Structures are given as structure tokens and as C-alpha cells.
Amino acid sequence: MDSIIETRELQIERKLFSIDLRENGRGKFLRITEDSQGHRNVIIVPMSGVDDFADAIDDVLASEPAES
After folding, report:
1. Is 19 left (phi over 0), alpha (psi -120 to 50) or beta?
2. 16 in Cβ contact with 35 (< 8 Å)
3. How many domains does the chain have?
4. Could you tell me the maximum CA-CA distance found in the chain, to the nearest angstrom?
């Protein structure tokens, strides 16, 4: 069974994102859930990879041209 350490929710347009820091017998992990019109997608990132995951997001966003 997972225990929730911290959680945040974001409503962006028609999507609800839940970002949970959780822990179970195997360790801590980040669980990102996207709920959109009855469809649910989940990404699990082990704590050992959270920094790399965040860096990859930053890199991708840095390469995005500025909006006019």
C-alpha cells in the first residue's frame, strides 16, 4: 500500500493533473496523474530519477521558441 507524503492538483484547461510524492515498500516515487474527460494516464518516476526527469523537462522547455 502506498502512503501519500505530499500532493498537489492543477486544473489546466479540461485536464486535471495530480502530482503526488508517495512511498511504499520499495521506496519513494513521484506519481503524476492526468485526468481528462474520463480518461486517466499515470506516470511513475522513482525518486532516484526525479532530478533527471525535471532536468529533461527544463531542457525541452528551454528549446521552445518564445511566443509572440
Report:
1. beta
2. yes
3. 1
4. 48
- Sheet order of strands, 27-36 included: 3-12, 15-24, 27-36, 39-46
Q: Exposed, middle or buried, 51 (CB in 10 Å: 0-12/13-18/19+)?
A: exposed
pLDDT, position 44: 98
What's the CATH code of the domain at 30?
3.10.450.700
Domain that holds residue 17: 3-62
In a domain, 68, yes or no: no
What does pTM read for this prediction?
A: 0.84
Q: Which three cell numbers stand for residue 24?
A: 511504499
Give the separation between CA 43 and CA 34, rounded to whole angstroms: 9
Provide mean pLDDT across the span 29-44.
Answer: 96
**Percentage, residues of the chain above pLDDT 70:** 96
